[in-house]
Write a structure and sequence with these properties.
The strands form two sheets. Strands 1, 2, 3, 4, 5, 6 and 7 form a seven-stranded antiparallel beta sheet that branches. The protein is of the alpha+beta class. Helix content is 20%, strand content 44%. The chain has two helices and nine strands. Strand 3 and strand 4 form a beta hairpin.
Length: 163
């Protein structure tokens, strides 16, 4: 057990020395249509800034009962969802675009999870969400129960539809 702790600590220290203390890394979504930022001078945004912007956006979009509505771009259905969490890590795509992945569940059905992706840009000093997509939808397997089925993936820095 002691060797495992030493190995894990060494691995973490090595990663920090290699990548620095920034939790933001490049993402494979570089070629997603990037909304041009209206900020002239680049400001650094950190994980906390991105998550705070995400939480503010979700709260602002949700109704009085905390239900977040999103039109499903595949089915056209209006989804009534409840926020669960923001995935780690959030990512920096380029100097002015950030990306966050989240989980929401269908209202009243906490096992039916949607994975929503959000693209974010700074606009007049604030991070603003400019695109949202359903990345994964809930499906049921007789063997495993509810799981998230991906609609697209990222290949060679491009969003690739799976169906």
């Amino acid at each position: 057990m002691k060797n495992l702790v030493i190995l894990t600590t060494s691995l973490i220290i090595g990663l920090l020395m290699t990548f620095g203390d920034s939790a933001l890394g490049d993402s494979s979504v570089k070629n997603h249509d990037v909304h041009p930022s209206s900020d002239k001078s680049p400001r650094k945004y950190y994980v906390e800034d991105i998550k705070e912007a995400m939480l503010k956006y979700i709260a602002a979009q949700a109704d009085i009962d905390g239900i977040f509505y999103l039109r499903d771009d595949k089915s056209g259905e209006m989804l009534a969802l409840r926020f669960v969490k923001i995935h780690d890590p959030v990512r920096k795509i380029n100097s002015s675009t950030y990306f966050a992945c989240t989980d929401f569940h269908i209202v009243g059905e906490p096992k039916k999870l949607y994975d929503l992706d959000f693209w974010i840009n700074p606009v007049t000093g604030e991070l603003k969400i400019y695109d949202t997509k359903v990345h994964k939808e809930p499906r049921k397997s007789l063997l495993y129960g509810w799981y998230k089925q991906p609609r697209y993936t990222f290949v060679n820095d491009r969003v690739i539809s799976l169906y």
